[in-house]
Design goal:
Shape: globular
Helix content: 25-40%
Distance between the termini: 54 Å
Number of helices: 20
Number of strands: 22
Structural class: alpha/beta
Largest sheet: 6 strands, mixed
Radius of gyration: 23 Å
């Protein structure tokens, strides 16, 4: 990019409790440019964005907007200056409506009274512009899925007349068709001269969208380059500090010789969201659940775990029929569930690493958890957990990848026979993803049955021995591991059925 930058951040430094997390970082953003900020979790990306957003004050450095120095003591001041941010952590009020969240702090008023209808109408227009009119502006946020809440955050940012928009993992919880909508919105924003600072761990997005890429590692600026001047493998090397030969580990054995007896069997299962679900997972096998957002993937996980019970059908674990009415009963039957939203559903953020790793044992086996709890430090060590304060450190201060390792340790301590992993790599960096993939292979090699739910098709295809594809609460079909993305999407969208109906 040529010409004066719209935004310039120079020598930005920041410390927390004496720990330096940003070391003199420089970044320029031009009008109409998408500048990607990449690096492992803990590299300082989110901290830099929060400095720009006015959430944190930099200890050193200077921020300029259109050549004039600015200082944002509060996010409201940043937004008024034309700088909006979509954070990875949701900043929504669950008991208020979508429209009330979008216009929070700047409510539309008529004759001195808050005009909910006017806000709902404006929100509906924004949602319609995104191609997501299915989200009702009057719905309370607590009733929305993770993906829909992320959409509300994006709409909230776009509702401001922003000149600079920062997006922190905006697609982490979005389905493929929703990502395509975001791509179109980004294109329109760039045409209007909006500068976009974009954080994502998905390399495809980076190379699809970015003009410029800046790499951070351990709070230091590693490099800034034009996206066209670097290849994905070299970018990964800059991010992790070492070459990465392959994202996914090799399968255990060809032709399924490692697969054992059926450990999880679901037949004819259903409830208000699901109908006639049949699937099996054998020991040593990774079965991927594919489908668009709302297809029923997470609902199957919740049904297995007694969160939202199956009202019909049967579930067997290791040949024994179970009917879990609560997560406690599911755990005692040998099931484990890594939820898609680790911060609100998987962790107590103000508790220590060790306390979180003991959560399930203490809840399910309060009088018999001592022996198993002794294994937890070893489990955390095997996961290569990085916590500067050791096992006493509060989980909220860990990077996303290390938080996910604590969630995994919590479940590994229970010695599960069946693990249900719902978006296990959402919002974590490429290095942490590889650690999770390696762990999945190790668990499968030990005879654990794994049901993998993911919105990332390359992840499902690369890690699964078999794929079960869902469409609108039903099983649309089954595919072998390694199937093409096009084949999976044809089943997930009903395109295969339409083609069969059209055939002579």
């Amino acid at each position: 990019m040529t010409g004066a930058p719209l935004l310039r951040m120079t020598d930005i430094g920041k410390s927390f409790l004496g720990v330096r997390v940003l070391h003199g970082v420089d970044l320029d953003l031009h009008a109409g440019e998408l500048h990607a900020l990449v690096g492992e979790n803990g590299a300082g990306k989110s901290t830099l964005m929060k400095v720009l957003a006015g959430v944190h004050r930099a200890d050193t450095g200077r921020i300029e907007l259109d050549g004039a120095e600015v200082s944002f003591e509060h996010p409201v001041k940043a937004r008024r200056a034309g700088v909006s941010t979509v954070f990875q952590e949701f900043n929504l009020l669950p008991e208020r409506t979508v429209a009330q969240n979008v216009f929070l702090g700047r409510e539309t008023r008529t004759r001195g009274m808050v005009d909910d209808r006017a806000m709902e109408s404006a929100t509906a227009a924004l949602l319609d512009d995104l191609g997501l009119a299915g989200i009702a502006p009057w719905s309370k946020v607590r009733h929305l899925s993770v993906a829909e809440q992320q959409v509300v955050e994006i709409v909230k940012a776009l509702s401001h007349d922003a000149r600079v928009i920062s997006m922190d993992e905006p697609t982490a919880a979005l389905a493929d068709h929703e990502v395509e909508v975001l791509y179109r919105i980004i294109a329109r924003l760039r045409e209007r001269g909006v500068g976009i600072l974009y954080v994502s761990h998905r390399l495809k997005e980076i190379f699809d969208l970015a003009d410029t890429i800046t790499v951070l590692k351990d709070g230091h600026l590693v490099d800034t380059m034009a996206a066209d001047d670097i290849r994905p493998a070299e970018l990964v090397r800059k991010m992790v500090g070492r070459p990465v030969s392959s994202v996914f580990p090799d399968p255990l054995e060809p032709h399924g010789e490692h697969v054992g007896e059926v450990r999880l069997s679901v037949s004819g299962a259903g409830n208000t969201r699901l109908d006639g679900i049949d699937l099996e997972v054998r020991g040593g096998e990774i079965v991927g659940l594919a489908g668009l957002q709302g297809s029923g993937r997470t609902e199957i996980a919740h049904g297995l775990f007694g969160v939202d019970r199956f009202t019909r059908g049967e579930v067997h674990v290791d040949g024994r029929r179970i009917d879990p009415r609560s997560p406690r009963q599911a755990v005692r039957a040998g099931l484990a569930l890594v939820t898609e939203d680790r911060k609100s559903q998987g962790l107590l953020l103000d508790r220590s690493v060790l306390a979180n790793a003991r959560l399930v044992l203490d809840a399910v086996l309060p009088f018999g958890s001592g022996r198993r709890a002794l294994r937890i430090p070893g489990i955390l060590s095997s996961l290569e957990l990085v916590a500067r304060g050791g096992h006493a450190q509060e989980v909220r201060y860990l990077s996303g990848g290390n938080q996910q390792k604590v969630v995994l340790a919590k479940w590994l301590a229970t010695d599960p026979g069946v693990m249900v992993l719902d978006e296990p790599t959402r919002g974590i960096d490429v290095g942490a993803k590889q650690a999770v993939y390696a762990l999945m292979r190790e668990l499968a090699a030990a005879g654990v049955a794994i049901l993998l739910i993911s919105s990332e098709l390359p992840e499902l295809i690369g890690m699964s021995d078999r794929l079960v594809v869902l469409d609108d609460g039903r099983v649309a079909g089954a595919l072998p591991g390694g199937s093409s993305e096009e084949t999976v999407m044809a089943l997930a969208t009903g395109a295969s059925a339409h083609r069969e109906e059209a055939a002579p």
